[in-house]
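BUG: 3D viewer hangs when loading the predicted structure for this chain

Environment: internal workstation, default settings.
Expected: structure renders.
Actual: progress bar stalls at 90%.

Input used:
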Amino acid sequence: MIRVVKRASVPEKLATAGVDATQRFCQEHDSGKREFAFDKNLYGHKTVKDAMVEDQFGKCCFCERKVGSDSDVEHFRPKSSVCQESHADRLTPGYYWLVYDWDNLFVCCRQCNQWFKRDFFPLRDATQRARSHHDNLALESPLLIHPTQDDAEAFIGWRDDVPYPINNSEQARHTLEILQLRKEDRPPQHHGDLQATRRDHLQLLQSLCDILQLAPTVEVEFQARDLLARMQSNQEVFAAMTRAFCAARGIA
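Structure tokens produced before the viewer hung:
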């Protein structure tokens, strides 16, 4: 997981139709309504989704795998309902006034969104949760790492292909647990893609590291270092894992 840098300009669909719909939800809430008709074609409009995909370099905001046409739009603060923990009651409505909020929207893979994140949004103090657009979000202290507001690499470290909470960070622990980003966390039927892909990535990194030590020519060493440098860029899959791997071995 890396920090996502989103464009400052809000996509037009959200700035126009999204603002109008949000005002309507707020008026409906004030009149007593608690169920809202969210328009997936608005927050998931092609122009909105394309902007998120571009800003995130085509990667899931949580696991850093490449996303395809089946990717989901993730509401960091859940829209329809919200849950503090797995055994807690779900509260409705969710953060209805943030459904079309650009800062609350990200693109992620279907596994992370539908299997794990779902409507979980734990807070250090659940009594401070904003329950309507009249409440102050600033009073909330989320236990999930925010993709843009937090630097994920300051919270989550890596031992080869296994992430761990730096200094036993509470935010990192909850993020890793809820999203089940550690190999031992994901149920066997869900291990598949993420575990295998990260393992293959680690093997590639180890092979390149071996080449650096055994390089028969200066040109081969240069090519290996160049590839490792490019693999550390935000555009590449598992950039955080790659940077940690290289840093641990003194590779620039």
